[in-house]
Amino acid sequence: MARQQKQTATERIRATLADAIVRGEIAQGVTLDEASLAEKFAVSRTPVREAIRQLEAIGFAEARPHRGAVVPNFTPERLTEMFAVMAELEALCARFAAERATDDEKRALREAHDACAHSARQGDIDVYYQTNLDFHEAVYAISHNSFLAEVTLSVRNRVSPFRKAQFRSFNRLMKSVEEHARVVDAILCGDPDGAAAAMIDHMNVVRSTVGEVSPTLRPLDDQAAETAER
Amino acid sequence: MARQQKQTATERIRATLADAIVRGEIAQGVTLDEASLAEKFAVSRTPVREAIRQLEAIGFAEARPHRGAVVPNFTPERLTEMFAVMAELEALCARFAAERATDDEKRALREAHDACAHSARQGDIDVYYQTNLDFHEAVYAISHNSFLAEVTLSVRNRVSPFRKAQFRSFNRLMKSVEEHARVVDAILCGDPDGAAAAMIDHMNVVRSTVGEVSPTLRPLDDQAAETAER
DNA sequence: AGCCTAAAGATTGCATGCAAGCATTCTTTG
DNA sequence: CAAAGAATGCTTGCATGCAATCTTTAGGCT
């Protein structure tokens, strides 16, 4: 029944650019130049423009009429706000997962966690980063709320280039796995409060670690505890 | 220092169409026809297309390559998922507001609440709907997390046509005001848990009321308690 | 009457070109 | 020399037109 969708150039370009921004390959502050992108993608400016309009709509680019769209810059305050929201959304995913995950889904989560642990032992940041993303996405997937998963993923993508920065901190991979383990344990034994709290803790560590390794993104003192106390 | 932004046709069209979708003036299932919209806005198809691409990116339209974009249909399950996420985000706004609102902001919230109470006594659904939106936005504004306010607003807009439907229920306006009052009381006396719980309760009533007045959107039995128990 | 096929019509995707707007550079003025 | 204004070049915003794709219609066959 599913109609096979033909992919438009606009969609292909949007996806490629979004991916590049998420991966940090197009840095913040970079202007998205229609002409050079059109040349790069071997198309006219039209689909490039349409793709850029889409990126603007989802916050991946900042519209500047007549002056080109630019990948947004982040202030430390802004990043802290975004991390706090992301933490809450991921905590909600964890909470729902703890309440609702089936046995099969719990097994899948455990496997995603094991893959993380394995790649942490290997010590390769890029591989760990990918298994880390897979792990988090596994939590979204078993929340049994696909809209929540979408919203969480979209917020996650917004700060993705920064999340990766954490792994430049000493022994961060192994610590990340330990934090994940607490989330997994709580989900597997059906403890929603515990799962949510463990995820909040994990995301708080991520935010402060990003500040350690990128001093220009260090949170202000009065934002250190942005996530709600409870 | 803020540069006065010139508004492009694309932006004007996007805003107008988004507003019409949010208000329910463009119903779900409607195809966004480039040619007639171009005629309506007295422009070529180009800015209309760009605006439609943006609407697609934010979920206000569903992309269908070569067959035009369409305002998405909602299933009851989908709507329930979306309401649950919205409830949690609004609850988080309320929680943060209870922790952080300044005296001036509390005053502004009280005023927004009083405006709601006044328009409820008048009994005009359209006016109440607007003051109701203003009230909720006042809560977002005093959360002291502008990113959270943005995300909450964008989710709120996605289900906006349905939220309005609740007010067709008997005496719903006055009940809505009572529910708001509990949120306001908790925020004003600095009770984050109370504020979050009151907002969750309020949003749950909204969801179930929407199902009462729109039988095709009634939640399934096993989704009745989508919002997390805690 | 129902089904299939081909053609016609309608709409979309995108290339191209022109005018408008902005940034940079050059010239003039005090 | 510095500041202001003018000129120039580059990029963006959008109109137009053509090809591709989808939908509808008409005709033929069973």
Rg over C-alpha atoms of chain A, rounded to the nearest angstrom: 19 Å
Name of the CATH superfamily of the largest domain in chain A: GntR ligand-binding domain-like
Oligomer: homodimer
| Distance separating the two termini of chain A | 47 Å
Number of helices of chain A: 9
Beta strands of chain A, count: 2
**CATH architectural designation of the largest domain in chain A:** Up-down Bundle
Our count of domains of chain A comes out at: 2
Give the low-pLDDT segments of chain A. Answer: none
What does this structure look like?
Two copies of one chain form a homodimer. Chain A is mainly alpha-helical and 230 residues long. The first copy, chain A, has two domains: 9-70, Arc Repressor Mutant, subunit A (Orthogonal Bundle); 76-223, GntR ligand-binding domain-like (Four Helix Bundle (Hemerythrin (Met), subunit A), Up-down Bundle). The first copy, chain A, is 68% helix and 2% strand. Chain A contains nine helices and two strands. Chain A has helices spanning 9-22, 34-41, 45-57, 76-100, 103-122, 125-141, 146-165, 172-188, 192-213; strands spanning 31-32, 69-70. The first copy, chain A, has a two-stranded antiparallel ribbon with strand order 1-2. The model of chain A has no long low-confidence stretch (mean pLDDT 91). The A-B interface holds A 5-8, 10-11, 14, 46, 49-51, 53-58, 63, 65-66, 78, 81-82, 84-85, 88, 92, 95-96, 99, 145-148, 151, 155, 192-193, 226, 228-230 and B 5-8, 10-11, 14, 46, 49-51, 53-58, 63-66, 78, 81-82, 84-85, 88, 92, 95-96, 99, 145-148, 151, 155, 192-193, 226, 228-230. The structure holds a DNA duplex (30 and 30 nucleotides).
